[in-house]
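Escalated from tier 1: magnesium ion holo job.
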Amino acid sequence: MIIIKSDEEIARMRKPNRVVAELLDYMGGLIRPGVTTKELDTKAEAFIVKRGGKPAFKGYHGFPATICASINEEVVHGIPGKRRLNEGDIIGIDLGVILDGFYGDAARTFAVGKVDSQALRLMKITEEALYKGIEQAVPGNRLYDISHAVQTHAEAAGFSVVRDFVGHGIGRELHEEPQVPNFGSPHQGPKLERGMTIAIEPMINEGTWQVRVLKDGWTVVTADGKRSAHFEHTIAITEDGPEILTRL
Ligand code: MG
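Tier 2 regenerated the structure:
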């Protein structure tokens, strides 16, 4: 069942989502060659706690950290650790916050120093695909209009769309119905209504769409070792169209 939120509930959801957006900006300012992903994680947790929230991912199905940090061929769910960022890497940071009973969730992929032109293109197309999807999040459209818009933009650029992981409803739970795939046929799926709150999160690969999970049980990598990018916003569907809750 898709849970419809009242205006008051959406107002409450703005709080955790604002913290998520501010924290992603802060992370962006810390990312440079030599930094470890553990250092980013420690600072992220302190930031959330200072703002009165709790990390949403830490302990979720046993995930051990505040942020997911996924470098280059890592798609999502990378575990922060001693690895140092290198010039030319790209790193996806995905993070969630719970505050006042509601969740916020967003992700961005950042360049570490100077990266090659194909990495820049992959990140640009993935972020554009996210916004193409968000544009479709209007009352009266169907869910897979979002999916189709994301897929069309990514594939037109010669990239591929991860199938095994998808976006999701969000609210009093981190993951609510519906699942929001980044591929699909237009005019299909549940009708979108005012009061739905969803996280749209394209994961776009340079090469094959196929992925596998490393032995740590979490880190998802591309099957061919080529790079992947990930951008995500939490949005609310309003009468006037989508409101991006994780944008400042
Ligand atoms: Mg998410």
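Residues 105, 168, 199, 201, 232 surround magnesium ion (CB under 6 Å).
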